[in-house]
User: What shape does this take?
Amino acid sequence: MSLIEGIMGNRFVVFGRAGMDMFADPIGVKSEDASHFRADLGGSSANICAGLVKLGSEAALVTSVSDDAIGRFCVNRLKDYGVETRYVRAVGGEARTSLAVYESCIEDFQNVIYRNGAADFQVTEADMDAVDYGAFTALITAGTVFAAEPSRSATFRAFDNARAAGLPVIFDIDYRPYSWPSPQVAAEVLTRAGEASDLIVGNDEEFGFMAGGLDKGLDKARELAAQGRMVVYKMGHEGAITLVDGQEIRTGIYPVTAVKPNGAGDSFMAGLLASIAQGHDLRDAVLRGSACASIVVSQPGCAGAMPTTAELEAFLASHSGPTD
Assistant: This one.
């Protein structure tokens, strides 16, 4: 099926990590000064899943978590958000579910991430072969899954399985340098993943990294789009350029008072895809994704800050914008 047909089918199988987020409470308190922290689901792919479900889509996460209390916490929170967890496997040994500790404070924002021996890198080709691809209409992955083995090879196997089942592939570059053995490996592998995808979403720095220089990022996005893909090139406060079928659609953002930067990309992806699935045209869907990102950065937490459809509509009705 085509990319748009797959998205409009509104049943997504998502690959990548789930983790625990701990964020200082209340807003404005630095982590080192906090006496209270709140805990919730985190991890880019888990956040995308939660965001999709809250906007009326169906989503299943394929990942591994540690066979301990933290892994079970993440699975329980996924279930609480309505995410399908049948493909989440607990692994023993020394692998551990990721932990992110951060704050709701933009000035000198700190996000301390613990990912040594990350459990989500332990997904295998057997895990990918166990997925019923016929139950879904599109595959989504975040780039972090490609940073280490066996997850890297397993996810490329999932791409092949999805292709065989007729599912389009959606790729969020999500480059996190600390996860990779070297920038050179990252650039090579992420480029390979992009070339195997139907929709690529990333920011200007990520495309620039893949191209070998920040000033070359837009050219890289254009190159990928010219090969028949849809590409969303995000530029932070300057908005986004969506490249598809020879067009370049420029859109702005919805300005808000942010309390943190993280979670915006995950919410954007969920809002974009859910809005296309709901029948919005591409420009409007990108703007709705941008609105979702603005909502998330204006609140503490990530998965819990993802808006419902009603909350998104209320935001759009009450906020001026978008910017030009």
Remarks:
- The chain has a mean pLDDT of 96.
- The domain at 3-318 is CATH 3.40.1190.20 (UDP-N-acetylmuramoyl-L-alanine:D-glutamate ligase).
- The chain has eleven helices and 13 strands.
